[in-house]
Amino acid sequence: MSGTRKLHIKSYGCQMNVYDSQRMTDTMAREGFVAAAEAEDADLIVLNTCHIREKAAEKVYSELGRVRRLKDAAARDGRKVVVAVAGCVAQAEGEEIIRRAPIVDIVLGPQNYHRLPALVARAERGGKVVDTEFPVEDKFDHLPAASREATRARGVSAFVTVQEGCDKFCTFCVVPYTRGAEISRPAAKIVAEVEQLAAAGVREVTLIGQNVNAYHGAGPDGTWSLARLLHRVAEVPGLARLRYATSHPRDMDADLIAAHRDLASLMPQLHLPVQSGSDRILAVMNRRHTRADYLYVIARLREARPDMAFTSDFIVGSPGETEADFAATLAIVGEVGYAGAFSFKYSPRPGTPAAERDDQVDDAVKVERLARLQAAIDRNQAAFNARCVGRTLDVLFEKPGRLPGQLVGRSPYLQPVQAMAPAALIGAVRAVTITRAGANSLFGELATPAPHAAAREPTALAEIVET
Ligand code: SAM
Ligand code: SF4
Question: Rounded mean pLDDT of 327-344?
Fold first, then answer.
């Protein structure tokens, strides 16, 4: 293939999909495709889908209606548009997608993205193809790295997938079926990718995986845990901040907890989903931990790093959930004092054990419980944000804010922070005194002079880019 054609990828769902979409963009760049922000003038449209809840899949089918109109309009102009559905809906529904939406040319599971160029070539010749095998080869060995320019354009904070798939089989969840068994990438490949990102100006890396703390990749001297990997990645020159997501409470081992005490660049923030505060529901969910186990892990992390901020995922209206079970969920929100959380109505997923149960909760009850839970989470988040007012926090500036002269960055606790600051500070960590807390973000002023921040972080992205 040659010449410049346009590729538009729309990503749904989790950070893993954002990362995968970037890697597909990098793969197609080698084939002469440039990324297009709009689907209208694209020659290849990829929907990178999520299957975690029913609504997510339905959104894809409604988007395919819009794509059909674009494809028909292009055909009238004599232009062929190739349409691919990738991700977990593709994996779960396979050929059914082409049956429901015949404009789709390619259905591609998450383990097969490295095959996209060959599949596009086939589709351009008029073939339809469904590729949802779990291949023996590792897609990461075949997906090219991003160019320096593409990395810079994506900003100063990047995701790196270190682990994929899941062996936990929570009874509500499709991930073990759509993403397959847990696999970890070799440590050396992850370190090389982080080094490339840092050399291009990335200052913050989040190591991601469906169960990132179950990481057990091949290292130079045997199997490495996530803690070991974090220690190594923390040595990469230029990196200011490290995070990891999403973690399972059962896999928070002592070394990982200690890493929060020992690694200055490991941010004091953790997304640790509990799903429910009721032991009975946790057992039905097959989470394999109790409420007490979870609170114990939280306490050990706070011992290691007293200012740890926690976020969580919650599911309300799981099969058999009573008002007493739900009360236990509401109680754990206050007990942990979350800095924020995602909460969802239980959505039965075909093929999962929870969907087969005959004690499903009424939708009206789910709606009412979700509203109460969200109100409790909002109160905790507001209290957490309010406690930041008057403090001076290190902020990694990421991009221009809404107002002229303003930048937006992130606090160590992942809150967005807005402050008046020169654009040259994009990519730099600076101390900001927080003056006001909104519902979702903080507002502050550069603390000048900022000796500790300046000493640790002499190099702004602008400086790196120019050298
Ligand atoms: N691996 C992570 C963990 O163990 O917590 C979560 C991965 S999952 C992609 C993200 C979140 O989606 C889950 O934490 C859960 O709250 C939610 N989720 C998963 N299946 C769901 C379902 N059937 N209905 C509603 N929410 C669901
Ligand atoms: Fe899904 Fe449970 Fe695996 Fe998380 S740990 S991906 S919720 S099965």
Answer: 97
What mean pLDDT is predicted for residues 56-79?
92
Which of 50, 163, 169 should be mutated for ligand 2, with most atoms under 8 A from CB? 169
Q: Which atom of ligand 2 is nearest to the CA of 287?
A: 2
pLDDT tens per residue, range 105-149:
999 999 888 899 999 999 998 889 898 887 656 777 777 778 888
Please, are residues 300 and 187 in contact by the beta-carbon 8 Å criterion?
no
State if residue 176 touches ligand 2 by the CB under 6 angstroms criterion: yes
Residue nearest ligand 1's atom 4 by CA = 248
Contacts of 50 (CB under 8 A, 6+ apart): 12, 13, 14, 17, 56, 57, 87, 88, 89
CA dist., res. 436 & res. 439, Å (int): 10
Q: What is the DSSP string of 342-407?
A: EEEE----TTSHHHH-S-PPPHHHHHHHHHHHHHHHHHHHHHHHHHHTT-EEEEEEEEE-SSTTEE
List, in order, residues 6 or more apart from 454 with CB less than 8 Å away.
430
| Residue 274 Cβ < 6 Å to ligand 2 | no
Please state, in angstroms and rounded to a whole number, the distance separating the CA atoms of residues 238 and 251.
29
Choose among 440, 422, 443, 416: nearest CA to 432. Answer: 443
Q: Single out the residue of 416, 418, 425, 424 nearest to residue 453, CA to CA.
A: 425
pLDDT in tens, 451-462: 444 334 433 433
DSSP per-residue letters across 316-329? ES-TT--HHHHHHH
